[in-house]
Amino acid sequence: MIRPVSWQDGGLSILDQTRLPGEEAYLLCSQVEQVADAIRSLQIRGAPLIGIAAAYGIALAAHGDQDQLDERVARAAALLRSTRPTARNLFWALDRMVARARQGAGARELLAEAEAIHREDADACRLIGEHGATLLPQGAGVLTICNTGSLATGGIGTALGVIRTARSRGNPIAVLACETRPLLQGARLTMWELTRDRIPATLITDGMAGALMQQGAIDLVIAGADRIACNGDAANKIGTYSLAVLARHHGIPFYVAAPLSTVDTSLASGKDIPIEERGPEEVRGFGGVLTTPEGTSVRNPAFDVTPGDLIDGIVTERGVMRPPYHRALQEAR
Ligand code: MRU
Q1: Which residues, in sequence order, are CB contacts of 90 under 8 Å at separation 6+?
Q2: Catalytic residue among 206, 226, 233, 304
Q3: How far is the CA of 178 from the centre of ligand 1 (A)?
Q4: Residue pair 132/315 in contact by the 8 Å Cβ criterion
Q5: Are strands 174-178 and 141-144 parallel, antiparallel or unpaired?
Q6: Residues in the chain, pLDDT under 70
Q7: Cβ 255 vs Cβ 220: under 8 Å
Q8: Does the Cβ of 237 fall within 6 Å of ligand 1?
Q9: Any catalytic annotation for residue 67?
Q10: d(Cα 9, Cα 283) in Å, to the nearest integer?
Q11: What is the rounded CA–CA span in Å between residue 93 and residue 101?
């Protein structure tokens, strides 16, 4: 089992995802500032994992004098909230940790709370896998995007957890993974996880999805989510919306898999989901190598929003929610 974050020797050990698949390097964070930097730089990434790491970051900040614990926790929470704006799980986990601190929890209890958040996410992934696996027809061609596996969660993953569970139940699905420009989470991370698990998978560039749907190679699309509004609008890695539009055009079911900690009940629709815009250098080249003319103007939104009415179902730990999503998501949350 891949452990992208784990509590060790009073610190948070993290697998540096920016160095995968070339190198499996672990770093030990002993300060909350290091956890914040790791989230900002994508050494730790994937909405549920960001939330888990942030919770451990609060546990780190809580260490020390009980007198000033509240202030240290508040400062750490503000720092962690500033790292990435889109993943709902980050804010959900921080709200939960801050609430525990306000109830008088000490450093030990806050670490226990972070461990509970971690464990609960692993359980949610297992259940998402079980519910979602029933949606995949025998031997279907299943397309996914970005990385939604063990590297993005506390367990087997969300969309990738569904794929893993289907395979472990003997369903010989053919997995297709989008490379996921610009940072290649599909090519680098999803392919790394699937190769380790000996799950056969085929990598495609993002622009190939439509042609493969037209040729009948894709029977179903399943993606993760960073934030889901009450009407089912779902923010996920840039390129997900294009897949949903293509899937609808070709009559292919499109599913989202996410734990309920990704649902933002304060948002009626996806129009107010904050979308992270990252630096231009990520699009101008890769791995420090410039692939564009000097000064090329680029856009780099890291996420897009897929309207709920393009989503055939949202797979959560409580089962598969179907449209209209308002009531189902509110009640489940
Ligand atoms: O920028 P990233 O790599 O953090 O983006 C991750 C995604 O878009 C995932 O699909 C999403 O967080 C769900 S992970 C279970």
Answers
A1: 39, 47, 50, 51, 54, 80, 81, 83, 84
A2: 226
A3: 13
A4: yes
A5: parallel
A6: none
A7: yes
A8: yes
A9: no
A10: 38
A11: 13
179: closest CA among 234, 138, 237? 237
Among residues 116, 152, 321, the alpha carbon closest in space to that of 226 is found at 152
Q: Which long-range contacts (CB under 8 A, 24 or more apart) does 32-38 make?
A: 32/57, 32/58, 32/60, 32/61, 32/76, 32/79, 32/80, 33/79, 35/60, 35/80, 36/79, 36/80, 36/82, 36/83, 38/14
Q: Are 177 and 148 in contact (CB under 8 A)?
A: no
Per-residue model confidence (pLDDT) at position 294:
93
Task: Give the span between the Cα atoms of 214 and 111, in whole angstroms.
Answer: 50
d(CA 93, CA 102): 14
146 lines ligand 1 (CB under 6 A): yes
**pLDDT of res. 330:** 82
Report the C-alpha gap between 287 and 255 in whole angstroms. 32
Backbone angles phi, psi at 171, to 5 degrees: -80, 115
Please give the full DSSP string across 183-218, using - where no structure is assigned: TTIIIIIIHHHHHHTT--EEEE-GGGHHHHHHTT--
Say if residue 324 is preceded by a cis peptide, omega within 30 of 0: yes
**Crossing angle of the two packed helices 69-81 and 32-40, in degrees rounded to 10:** 10
Contact 216, 289 (CB under 8 A): no
Q: What is the pLDDT of residue 26?
A: 97
pLDDT at 115: 98
Residue 116 makes CB contacts below 8 A (sequence gap 6+) with none
Nearest Cα residue to atom 6 of ligand 1: 46
Whether the CB of 148 sits within 6 Å of ligand 1: yes
Contact 53, 14 (CB under 8 A): yes
C-alpha 120: how far from chain center: 15
For residues 113 and 55, is the Cβ–Cβ distance under 8 A? yes
Give helix then strand counts, H and E, for the chain.
11, 15
